[in-house]
Structures are given as C-alpha cells and as structure tokens.
Amino acid sequence: MIFLRNIAFAVGDFQLQNLSLEIPTGAYCVLMGRTGCGKTTLLEILCGLRRPAQGQVFIDGREVTSQPPGNRNIGYIPQDGALFPTMTVREHLGFALRLRRRPEKDIAARVEELADQLSIAGLLDRRPLGFSGGERQRVALGRALSFHPSLLLLDEPLSALDEELRSEMRQLITRLQRQHGITALHVTHDTAEAEAMGGLRLLMRNGKIEKITNPETRTSSFEKPIS
Amino acid sequence: MSPKSTDHRAASSLPFWIVIGTIAATYLLFIGVLLASSATYSSPGDWLRALRAREIQYAIWLSLFTCTITAVLSLLVAVPIGYLVSRGQFRGKSWVDAALDIPIVLPPMVIGLCLLILFQTTGGRWFEEFIPMTYTVNGVILAQFIVGSAFAIRTMRSTFDHIASRPEEIAMTLGCSRWQAVRMVTLPLARRGMFSAASIAWARSMGEFGPILVFAGATRMKTEVLPTTVWLELSVGNLEAAVAVSLLMVVMAVVVLVAIRSIGERP
Predict the structure, then answer these.
(1) Alpha carbon of A133 to those of A80, A129, B18: distances in Å?
(2) Top-ranked range on mean pLDDT: pick from A9-13, A154-158, B26-30, B237-241
(3) For residue B180, what is the nearest residue in chain A, using CA coordinates?
(4) Lowest mean pLDDT: which of A174-188, B58-72, B165-179?
(5) Nearest chain A CA: its distance from B174 CA (Å)
(6) Which of A80, A86, A147 is closest, CB to CB, to B174?
(7) Rounded mean pLDDT, A213-226
(8) Which of A103, A11, A113, A7 is nearest to A52 (CA)?
(9) Cβ atoms of residues A30 and A202 within 8 Å
C-alpha cells in the first residue's frame, strides 16, 4: 500500500500543501490534473527525488520519507523515457539487477523474459539513439520492471505516442501490471487516457487531491476533498 | 480597401549570408596572413638551427611535459567543480560561480605575483620544504594550472548544463547512489566535454607566460618553456629564433588539438 500523509512542498510559486493519499496494494491508480498542477512533483516525492517540506511517505507499511531513491523499490517511467544514451537495451534491462549483484545467469534470463514480454528482443543490442517513441517507452517500462519493484510510477507515459500505439501501449502496461501484481500510479492530463486505463481515478487541482472516484462502482470514495 | 496578404514579399536572405560570409572570410584571412607573414620572415635553415639548440629542445620537452600534467590536473578538478556548479543548488552559488572566473579575469602578471607572495608566507614556506615551488618546474605547472583549470571548469560546467539530469535521477531510482549514477550514466555522456576541457587547459598552458616568468623565472635548462624562449630570444635580438619557436608552438598546438578532438569525437 502507498500512503502519503500531510505532504507539503514548495518550489518557487508552486505549492503542494497538506496532501494525503492512499493507494491499495495491486491497484492501478490514475492521477489526473492539468499540466503544472504538481503531478510530477508528487511522483518525485514518492520516489525520493524530492524531499517534502513536511509529511511522511509510506510504501508497504514502511516509512521511506528520508530514504534515498534507490532504497524505495520503485520503478519510475518518466515522460520521455529518459533512457541512457550510451547503453544498449540489454544493459538498460540488466542495469538495476547488476547494481543488486545478481548472478549474470539470472540477469540474462530476466533480460530475455522482459524483452519477450515487451517485444523488444530485436533491439537488445542497440543503443536508444533513433528509437521511436513507442520503443523508448517499452525499454523504459522494461528497465523499471526489471528488479520487481513494489510500485510503478508512470509520468504521462503515452503522451508522446500516436493514437494506434497508445492503445497498444495501454494494453501492454495493464497486462504487465497485472502479470507482475504491482501497484501502479499513472499520471496524465488527458481525461480520455485516464478513462481508458480504468482502475482508481484521482484528480489533482491547486496542489491538492480534490476528488477520488472509483469508476467501477461509479461512486465517490470520499465525499469531501481529502486534504 | 485593406491590403491583401500577398502584397508583402520578404526580402531575399542572400545579402544576409553575403555579409556574414564576408566578415568570416576577412577574419580568417587576417589570421592566415598573420601566420604566413611570420612563416615567410624566417627561412627553414633558421628553424632547423633553432630546433637543434639544446636549450630550445629542453624548452620543447618541458612545455609538452608541463602542459600535459596541467591538462590532467585541470580535468581532475574541473569535473567535480563543473558538476557542482551545474547541478548543485546552494546558497551563494552565484558568488562561487563568479569566484571561479577570477583566474580568467586577473592580469597574468598579477597571478604570478600572488603566487610569489603566497609562497613567502609561513604556510607557503612550510609547504615548500616538502614540494619546492618558487623558481622550479613545479612552479611552472602551478602557474599554468591556475589559468588552465579555470577554463576547464567553465567547459565542464557547460558540458553538464547540456546533459539532461533525468537519466541520472532515473538511475538513482534503479538503485544507484549519486556517485554511481554520475559515473555510470552522466560521465560517459560527458566524454567529449572532458576531452575539450583537457585540450583547452593544454592549449592555454602552452601559451602561458606572465605568471611563469614572475613565479618560476626564466632560467635556461631549468624553467624555460616555449613562451619564455620567445621572450629570451627577442630580448637578445635573435628574431629568427623567436619566430621559429613561435611557429613551432603554432604547429604543436594545432597537432595536439586536432589529435585530441579526433579522439574525443570517436563514437
């Protein structure tokens, strides 16, 4: 379970205040909100790239507020993929496992498994220069899933893709999330995308999460804005 | 009647290119004439005679040696400092940034004088008991390093400014410490910048004269580097030898810069 308690953060004119959020284990949660409303900041706080001014972050019951990003067991997929230009796809997929000193045999097996699931086996020995948006996102997804994280963060993962690729990628993400039994938090400014992804939907406005709806029951989980 | 949008015709861009092309050509021509006039002033016989002189051969090797050491030392400080001022967010950063440019804006002779005074202080004298600096080859390297490293730091800073920080942050979420992320993701991307920082430090050191003259002296077969040779030869009226050494410095600088660039640009 992901739990944010009374998070506050300010950078320049932008402020997040008194923000709380709970995502049950294994859920696919979509966080909507306009561009610039603080969605990416929230993801950065979750994965430890930013420290909140106050509040606490819990992942699977463990407080991680002051833990460095590498200790949180979170897979992060940023908007543009942020691939490593000097590494091959094989090196991307094995990167986190090599840091964890897994045996080379296990790494090779995991790389093959991911390449197969993501249909990128043909790209394994190539570097990302010249990859299409879809290829980049697949590699980023594989890299984030490689070390079996407990939480997957997706920052506008479909925004750079054309319509056809979007629906393909959407299905791939949903399938992998279920296969891996991983909790996912997907942020987007696109309402249609949020509806298509299903799962739990949240809306972020003015630095607060104002509404939580569960589309499957079509009822509001919280009557009042949570803050 | 309102004018139609088709009434407007943009002027040709040809004159624009002709003007900036002419400025560039004139500038390059000036540099070419500058070098050619020196080259034709002395004969190949003068060059050979100068190059055979034992003192000048020593100066050539000392210049190559000190510049290479300076380039390596400059890179060693430029990478961490460049990274700090590019990525670090801390109070007083603009002051640190300005302070890093001090060696660039200080008059060369002043740098030499400051060094000379520094090693006359109690701490400086104590240091010299272990590593002699004033009027030694170490002093030549230190004088070159002060200016060379400032240019290398600028180059590394702009290199890191142009490398996105996102991949490095993603590496940290994958389990890297900051140092591992920098070493495995950012430094391989900064390779070209590192080559150009080292080559800039090398080239600046090759031409360094003022601080060396003041701090390390101009003793033949001891602290004489090529710019010192030019000055010494000029001061005794041996213009041919001064020109020959100057041309040699031009050739050495071009050869080394081209070599370093071609290594740096290899994929």
Answers:
(1) 8, 11, 40
(2) B26-30
(3) A99
(4) A174-188
(5) 5
(6) A147
(7) 44
(8) A7
(9) yes
Smallest Cβ–Cβ distance between B173 and the set A47, A83, A86 belongs to A47
Q: Cα torsion at A30, A33, A37, A42 (round to 10°)? A: -10
Kindly tell me if the per-residue pLDDT of B237 is higher than 80: yes
State yes or no: pLDDT of A226 exceeds 60.
Answer: no
pLDDT of residue B182: 96
Q: Give pTM, 2 decimals.
A: 0.86
Nearest to A96 among B174, B177, B188 (CB): B174
CB of A127 within 8 A of CB of A160?
Answer: no
Residue of chain A nearest B175, judged by CA positions: A70
B188 to chain A: which residues are within 8 Å by CB?
Answer: 86
Q: How far is CA A214 from CA A197, A200, A217, B74, in A?
A: 12, 5, 6, 59
Q: What residue type is assigned to position B167 of the chain? A: P
Contact residues of A toward B, CB < 8 A:
47-49, 68-70, 72, 74-76, 78, 80, 82-86, 95-96, 99-100, 143-144, 147
Cβ contacts of A59 within 8 Å, gap of 6 or more: A1, A2, A3, A72, A73, A74, A150, A151
CB atoms within 10 A of CB B136: 18
C-beta of residue A84 within 8 angstroms of C-beta of residue B193? no
Q: Indicate whether B11 pLDDT > 50.
A: yes
Which is it for the CA torsion A62, A67, A72, A75, positive or negative?
positive
SS3 A65: coil
On chain A, the residues whose CB falls within 8 A of the CB of B189 are: 85-86
- Tell me which chain B residues have a C-beta less than 8 angstroms from the C-beta of A86: 185, 188-189
* Nearest residue to B104 (alpha-carbon basis) of B198, B192, B200, B228: B200
**What interface predicted TM-score (ipTM) does this complex get?**
0.89
